[in-house]
Amino acid sequence: MKRPGLLPVLPLVTLIVILFSGCGRNEGAADNEAEETVYPVRGVVQKRMDDPSMLLIDHEEIPGFMPRMVMPFRVLDPSLFDGLEPGMEVTLDFHVTETDSWATNVVATGERGPITLEERADSSKLLGVGDELPDYEFVDETGKAVRFSDFRGMPVAVTFVFSRCPVPEYCPRMMNHFATVREKLDADPEAPKSYRLLTISFDSEHDSSEIMKTWGAGYGHKAGQSWSLLSTPESEVIDSIASRVGLRFGESNGTLQHNLRTLVLDRDGVIRALYTDETWSVDDLILEIKKSDS
Prior knowledge:
By secondary structure, the protein is an alpha+beta fold. It has two domains: 96 residues, CATH 2.40.50.320; 155 residues, Glutaredoxin (3-Layer(aba) Sandwich). 17% of the residues lie in helices and 29% in strands. The protein contains five helices and 14 strands. The strands form four sheets. A five-stranded antiparallel sheet has the order 3-2-1-4-5, with no helix packed on it. It has a five-stranded mixed sheet with strand order 10-9-8-13-14. Strands 6-7 form a two-stranded antiparallel sheet. α2 crosses α5. It is elongated and about 60 Å long. It starts with 11 loop residues before the first helix and ends with a helix.
């Protein structure tokens, strides 16, 4: 079914993606071995962030890389953002490697543009640690119907992505992390005898089971693993689960906005850990999976 539009508005701190954790680089420098691409970007400042090295910008489409989106840009020298305020139009150079991204040459054009952020909404009904996650049905990468309840009796880790996400610190990081978690758990004699990793696409209009299968193969996903790639053509399913866990994906005023959620469920389907950005580590998740196997 067609997506009706932007998902329910959530608190601003969870509204927009926090894409860029610390890079530990020198200004303008990338690993010599890393292939680096630089994209010119034009956009409108939406919000100053708590981290002075990050600025939330509604940027125009970056041809050949990503659609128009509201997202944080990180600089390695915070002084590049001095004097910039919401509504100011800026241009910048966006550097992207396989694992990292950052901005340089940030310049205010002297023009102004709209603030496209949605208003805050009541988050009192969001699920948290200790709440049971409702049951939902998806299809896995083979086209087989799968429900959360199919995995009762084992710990389950769930994360949300979409295959067209190009920013290395975001959906690709979630895929790489889950691939590494699976490898480590399968090699760990103290790991749960049974567990499941569920990667769910929230792009119901594009990500079919076949697309998820092909995309996942690039991250080492194979048949028979304790890692399933789920999707659904029913946007209502995504809307429902998103409204419960604080996930956001949709379009507003021509701008794509989305965030991240990663959950760990215990044997009874109760949430035991909930991460709201990309900063969790592989070891963090493995520890929570082990703790949830009791």
